[in-house]
């Protein structure tokens, strides 16, 4: 099996700031893939644009660094071409809940068998600190000098409403629990989303490691069971002095590709297409 840790290649330099929650997320992702014995050669990590979206450069799987807000449709294309691959998307809150919101909702409702991991630092990090869709009301940032006046986007609530089959939240300050959640999300058949509280130490001076440490509590330490959508919604709305982390909801359902009879015996990339004239199709298009 290939070594997942690929940061030591000559010329490969990590661009994340010292202390950024992204480092723990990368470690947790590698740990999770090892935990479930996932073959790196059958794994693709796709992304959009942002600090978080640079992750595929530093893990020894296949990777595709896409364009802003388009990590999910890109991953969906990869999965459609070869559904035998394990597809993971790592992207930011701005990228996915801002520029890519439409893709988020449709990936959820289609139950495409992929895992989306959001580096939710509640800020546009790479562009140096503008408010993002998940910035809390009142957040002072470069784009909201008098405080954000909008309600924040609730990624877990949207996921539940759009019929997601695995909905979770992790905290980058708890690597062990985060790796366990990632492992379960990646092993899940269907669309899994893990929104991760990932402190940005350079541009978000509100939602710091200390801020989260005071507030987060583990659902697994309570009597909570992740099998009731209404209870999961109640927990998704708990964003005050105490904020739950863990698995909010999961259920088994056929995935998008399971419902396509054309893909039953082999993935698209293994189909014989000798009888299809690409030339004719190209002529029709141009
Ligand atoms: C179409 C488009 N619009 C805007 C940008 C500029 N841009 C690059 S990264 C980024 C924000 C990324 O924020 P987020 O997704 O939260 O990731 P983070 O850097 O915080 O990890 C923006 C607006 C772009 N590259 N492409
Ligand atoms: Mg961000």
Strand fraction: 15-25%
Bound heterogens, unique = thiamine diphosphate, magnesium ion
The number of helical elements comes to 9
Q: Report the CATH architecture.
A: 3-Layer(aba) Sandwich
CATH class: Alpha Beta
SSE arrangement, N to C = HEEHEHHEHEHEHEHEH
Mean pLDDT: 94
- What global shape is seen? globular
Please count the beta strands (DSSP E, at least 2 residues each): 8
CATH topology: Rossmann fold
Radius of gyration: 19 Å
Uncertain residue ranges? none
Which superfamily, in CATH terms, is the homologous superfamily? Thiamin diphosphate (ThDP)-binding fold, Pyr/PP domains
Overall tally of domains: 1
Largest sheet properties: 8 strands, mixed
First and last CA, distance = 45 Å
Side-by-side strand order of the widest sheet? 2-1-3-4-6-5-8-7
Provide the helix percentage: 25-40%
- From the helix content, strand content and strand pairing, which structural class follows? alpha/beta
How would you describe what is shown here?
The chain is an alpha/beta fold and 286 residues long. It has one domain (21-285): Rossmann fold (3-Layer(aba) Sandwich). It has nine helices and eight strands. The chain has helices at residues 21-35, 71-81, 93-99, 101-110, 155-161, 175-187, 209-215, 229-236, 278-285; strands spanning 43-47, 62-65, 86-92, 115-120, 166-171, 192-197, 216-218, 243-250. The chain has an eight-stranded mixed beta sheet with strand order 2-1-3-4-6-5-8-7, sandwiched between helices. β5 (166-171), α6 and β6 (192-197) form a beta-alpha-beta unit. The termini are far apart. Bound molecules: thiamine diphosphate and magnesium ion.
């Amino acid at each position: 099996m290939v070594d997942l840790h690929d940061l030591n290649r000559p010329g490969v330099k990590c661009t994340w700031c010292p202390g950024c929650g992204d480092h723990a997320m990368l470690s947790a992702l590698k740990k999770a893939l090892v935990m479930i014995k996932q073959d790196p050669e059958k794994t693709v990590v796709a992304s959009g644009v942002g600090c978080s979206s640079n992750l595929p450069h530093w893990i020894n799987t296949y990777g595709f660094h896409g364009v802003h807000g388009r990590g999910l449709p890109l991953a969906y294309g990869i999965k459609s071409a070869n559904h035998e691959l394990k597809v993971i998307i790592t992207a930011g809150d701005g990228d996915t809940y801002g520029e890519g919101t439409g893709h988020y909702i449709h990936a959820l409702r289609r139950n495409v068998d992929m895992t989306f991991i959001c580096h939710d630092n509640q800020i546009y990090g790479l562009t140096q600190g503008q408010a993002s869709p998940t910035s809390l009301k009142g957040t002072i940032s470069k784009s909201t000098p008098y405080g954000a006046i909008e309600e924040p986007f609730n990624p877990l609530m949207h996921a539940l409403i759009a019929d997601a089959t695995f909905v979770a939240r992790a905290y980058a300050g708890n690597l062990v629990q985060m790796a366990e959640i990632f492992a379960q999300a990646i092993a899940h058949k269907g669309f899994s989303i893990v929104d991760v509280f990932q402190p940005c130490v350079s541009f978000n001076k509100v939602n710091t490691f200390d801020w989260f440490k005071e507030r987060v509590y583990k659902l697994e330490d309570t009597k909570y069971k992740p099998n009731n959508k209404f209870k999961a919604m109640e927990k998704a709305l708990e964003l005050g002095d105490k904020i739950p982390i863990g698995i909010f909801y999961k259920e088994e359902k056929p995935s998008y590709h399971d419902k396509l009879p054309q893909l039953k015996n082999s993935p698209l990339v293994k189909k014989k297409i000798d009888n299809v004239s690409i030339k004719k199709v190209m002529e029709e298009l141009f």
